[in-house]
């Protein structure tokens, strides 16, 4: 027997019923983000590997072990995008958007790829939508971006999520903190897990989000990063908090929140749904003031976030906030006999061109069998074309809900249907 070929580990198919939910989700997200003044950008699925090495940071888990990287035929190193911020920044520089307006607001939506260990809420191909506000330095921009995530989730009916906030300072204050971390933790290095012992010299901030109890205990001996913020970073962070207080949005200060990407400076945040289990971050983001310059552009600040769409859908499902969606046809046209197939085909085509969602019955089957299929599909109406009726240029319209039916002139069909249901699609001219 031939081995079955299945979807690769950590990936999945979106089948037609589920695709309805995705279509609704994507169009809702697009509508909200457009209404907040963000323009959609679609960058390639793959980029030069160097973009992520430079952008995300050589010593991050993503770059060290999670990227899908390969050499193309020209022996260039190519990587499937693990996230959207570095590609957006690359496009921002390449298209010289800094010369167009002082602040650029972009959003994206699409698949990302990370070779992580799959588990509930964690996939190897997953989907994100994200926003990037590039060019704005003030704490107002940070607060606006956090509020956008908060308000978007609220509009979807998610009102009990937690915002976790921290500041990782600028390169200078972060360096002071790293030095303090390293010297305190080196003294207790044998209490750390093997991975953290390696991280100690290479990227000590990563130790803060290690889940091992002994590492957490060791880290708790180091004062919080807030104690190391320089006056400017401290002022900026307090500004963000004051703006959130002003609009009465609740948040939790999380001194250990550092995020898994190295481009962040100052504000970092995540929005959490505790009911999601281990992978409970619905979205994450923050400020990245050095990224545009690190990618070869001018020194322009930026702030943004990205949200996992799978986790958002699971959350909406858990809380009963997904709308009822139906892929059912609106009506079935049923020819009674093969000789009426062409007539039924013509009627179905003219109704489809009026924007109705129409299925065509199978004329070789009995009326009973065809009505059964129509019922199963969830269609609201059927149009039955029988031999005798058609001789008189008439058809029968049946309302499936109550079983009532009415014989009408075929010429009146479109008018009759339009008086019963509204077309779902556009008219074909
Ligand atoms: P991130 O925290 O790596 O940030 O990802 C953002 C969100 O994507 C996560 O909170 C989670 O919902 C979802 N996500 C990440 N990895 C997976 C996975 N393997 N399976 C399912 N969902 C996942 C970024 O990607 C940054 N680019 C966000 C950003 C934008 N920062 C500034 N601007």
Descriptive overview:
By secondary structure, this protein is α+β, with helices and mostly antiparallel strands. It is built from 15 helices and 16 strands. Strands 1-5-6-11-10-9-7-8 form an eight-stranded mixed β-sheet, with helices on both faces. A hairpin with a 5-residue loop joins strand 3 and strand 4. Helix 5 runs parallel beside helix 9. The mean pLDDT is 95. Residues 83-85, 114, 116, 121-123, 126, 128, 130, 132, 260-261, 281-286, 288, 304-308, 310-311 line the site of histidyl-adenosine monophosphate.
Give start-end ranges of low-pLDDT stretches.
none
Based on CA inertia axes, which overall geometry fits? elongated
Q: Report the span from N to C terminus.
A: 52 Å
Spatial strand arrangement across the major sheet: 1-5-6-11-10-9-7-8
The beta-strand count equals 16
Structural class: alpha+beta
The percentage helix is: 25-40%
Bound molecules: histidyl-adenosine monophosphate
Number of helices: 15
Taking Cα atoms only, what radius of gyration do you get, to the nearest Å?
Answer: 28 Å
